[in-house]
Write a structure and sequence with these properties.
heterodimer, A: 381 residues, alpha+beta, Dna Ligase, domain 1, D-amino Acid Aminotransferase, Chain A, domain 1, Rossmann fold, 3 domains, six-stranded antiparallel sheet, four-stranded antiparallel sheet, 13 helices, 18 strands, B: 288 residues, alpha/beta, 2 domains, seven-stranded mixed sheet, 34% helix, globular
Amino acid sequence: MNIHEYQAKEIFRAAGIPIPPGEVATTADEAEKIARKFGGTVVIKAQVHAGGRGKAGGVKLAKTPEEARDAAERILSLTIKDLPVKKVLVTPAAEIATEAYVGVIVDRASKRPVFMVSPAGGIDIEEVAAKTPEKIRRHAVDPRYGLRSYEAMELGFFLYDDVKQARAAAKIMQQLYSAFVASGGSLAEINPLVTTPSGDVVALDAKMVVDDNELDRLPNLAALRDETAEAPSEVEARNASLTFIKLDGNVGCVVNGAGLAMATMDLVKYYGGEPANFLDIGGSSNPEKVVAALRIITADPNVKAILFNIFGGITRTDDVANGIVTATKLNPLKVPIVIRLTGTNEEIAVKILEDNGFVAMTDMDEAVQKAVALATGKKAA
Amino acid sequence: MSIFIDNDTRLIIQGITGRDGSFHARQMMEYGTRVVGGVTPGKGGQKFDETVPIFNTVEQAVAETGANASVIYVPPMFAADAMMEAADAGIPFIVCITEGVPVLDMTRVYPFVREKGARLLGPNCPGLISPGKSKVGIIPGRICTPGPIGLVSRSGTLTYEVVFQMTRASLGQTTCVGIGGDPINGTSFIDCLAAFEADPDTTAVVMIGEIGGTDEQDAAAFVKAEMSKPVVGFIAGQTAPPGRRMGHAGAIISGSAGTAAEKMEAFEQNGIAVARRPIDVVQLLRQQ
């Protein structure tokens, strides 16, 4: 789960990390008031779950409250990577001497939390990794001990020669690690971590991704989810326990299991079609999930054909068949549907479908070819 | 022969009285797996389906039954503890089916299990089956048939699809292993490839990967350096957009690292025959 910068900053601040004050506004009026309260130059930052918001015009400096108002108005009218900006963070502009990067992620290869730090901050860390890899230092943390002081100091001295600054950075990294673990993070990042002309070390930005699997035991974190900042179809899917990602094609796919769902999309492409989405109805079968899946898919006007590909293991194919019958009675389909199912209770499922006027297929390749043909208007090969 | 499980596997089921645990306990027993006990705290002394003794702890179960494998069907927030309990009780082979285990939990479980000398398969995996001998987990028994092909996969239902097509084409299996799609799992592709290489009955191996991470690339290098048996590969997620999570936490691609194209290229460069479609696995196996 993504959380906003202002939310991540609250978490980091609570862990003791020095972060300048800031307040959230949802209107230009509010932004103006906050800017007036802070006085001086402020930064207005879009709060949106998309990278590259600076390049998209989502971050602006404002020297006066009036400028803050204008900037907020413009930013609040933006849509960045299909996501409308609903909130801005208003924060006093900081004087910057140097910019560094500090981040911690869970690394698959070492199977540990790994710190990544660089004195070349303020820009995309992938860019630093590609162009000047020597400016990045990685350090795997043993989760039984956490980030020990001497390890943090080694990283601190990689960022700063000055011992006071190295020590300040080390402390920040230990605090970041604590916040990361306590919040069930899969990523926590400060970019940039800056030094001010007076020598202080301060975090100007904050990013955190929370492991979805942690949310059941971290209700305070789960409460930070901002559904208005997510694509509506993905919110509906999640509430129905489906995994859904919208794409640009015209073959709507409903599949059980992530691997089979991806393989099905690949096969759609292989036979000359374009998948309209990734949709995994998951392991346990429940006709309600199928109803929700069909509602989400048919809401996409690009979809010209719907393809079900179900390999019943835990999933009972008769449950899926019942879901299809229920859903199409509720909302009759306007586009053709191709149903492939095999596995658990297949005979029952086929009978349910055929009794209700559907054709059930058992071969994956044949079903995909048929769906592509229906979506594109071309004949199946 | 087979890898990891066979007729000598004596299995206990952690969470045997739960909804999933009880259903799959029956499926495994029906398949012929030797289920020697179950663990549900508070139900020690009772019997599951009037035949399988239930214990309060894994330690008691091991002492009473001589179990040498455990399969875990407990809810995600308890799964880390269950894996460590099994390892601490001396179980050498632990399979965790549970989906949704927090990844930070796994950063602690993995080193613990290793220190105890146990092998962990999963979490978030379908388990494994040695057709005709034993199955541990949830892979449907009827889609498999005994034979000389080893299969290792990061996926669940996609594995079933490929195994089913192999079985229909009379290409039987020594063992089918689902290693799971989570970012941190106990057993890697390489662990399975090494085991298949050492298994005299396995003549060829199928490896099914996904976008995300570099496990498939590492496995491809291993195939070239260490394996004499032919390997056929498939990668799911060729049409996945970069940077999106597609169900499995493992299937995250950021920029160029971990794309399907990159993995397929690594396969080809290391002598692995690449199937473009799941059905092509059958054809490629016949050519080996």
